[in-house]
Amino acid sequence: MGVTELGATAVAEVVENRRITPEKTDEVRHIVLRVDEPSFRYREGQSIGVVVPGPHAFGNKYHMRRYSIANDRSHSDEAGVEFSILVRRCFYIDPLNGERYPGIASNYLCDAPVGKSISVTGPYKSPFIIPTNNQSNLVMIGVGTGIAPFRAFIQHLYGEQGGWSGQVRLFYGARTGMDMLYMNDHNSDLKEYFQEETFMAYNALANRPLMSATEALQQSLDSHVEEALSLISQPQTYVCVAGLSKVEQAMDRVLAEAMGSDQEWAALKGQLVSQGRWSQLLYS
């Protein structure tokens, strides 16, 4: 373990780095890191920080970006632990000069070869509240790399927990079938859970040009809104929301319309929040 201005760091080795979206679409990579440090352990829903050495703009020595861990905690041994993260290669446009710049952490990770050593911090406390009683229901709503923690939850519930009696639902939207990440023809590692009697994934794809993944998610929710509301209204249901900030707006729009008013949906959502059954991780 080392120490920087960012706090304690550990050295992680890149074990695997593969693209899981096709060419001519946004590049998303599944990256497996290994930390050979017995004290480094994590739980589902936590995130780690990736430290990119500088110098960077404004004289910063380090740049740190957090990523949700995309697998359950079963990938551990006495010497250390392996964990996966989902990384979308990002760029941003300077609003003043219109120039395009690469995202620091995402490009650093996407270009990292197998065997490269990377400094990581954390793991950090999870924002998500996951039920421990297997009679509880879990509703997960998200798009894009927001599926990372959900993948870990599903692995945990049906793997380490040995099955789940409550109902588990995943509502997910994508622009194309290949953007489904862990649910497309090439990366269908969630398909094994479809045989579970209590698990169902509702995935909607964009059905018109320029339709966004968030709009597809709205379509997914709208097509199954009665089931979604039925589950969310039950006292043993927990809800997790992850992805772009627009996800919350799309979700609120569909569920408020189904309930008849913004006020009624806000009251139900507020009840879940106050009872510790609602959690979310949203990013711009």
TrEMBL record:
InterPro entries tied to this protein: FAD-bd_FR_type (IPR017927), Flavoprot_Pyr_Nucl_cyt_Rdtase (IPR001709), FNR (IPR015701), FNR_nucleotide-bd (IPR039261), OxRdtase_FAD/NAD-bd (IPR001433), Riboflavin_synthase-like_b-brl (IPR017938)
Record PROSITE patterns: FAD_FR
Cofactor(s) required for function per UniProt: FAD
GO molecular function: oxidoreductase activity
Keyword Oxidoreductase annotated: yes
Gene3D superfamilies in UniProt: Nucleotide-binding domain of ferredoxin-NADP reductase (FNR) module (3.40.50.80), Translation factors (2.40.30.10)
Pfam family, any one: NAD_binding_1
Flavoprotein listed as a keyword: yes
Residues covered by the FAD-binding FR-type domain: 7-130
Keywords, comma-separated and alphabetical: FAD, Flavoprotein, NADP, Oxidoreductase
This protein's name: Oxidoreductase
Top-level taxonomy: Bacteria, Pseudomonadati, Pseudomonadota, Gammaproteobacteria, Chromatiales
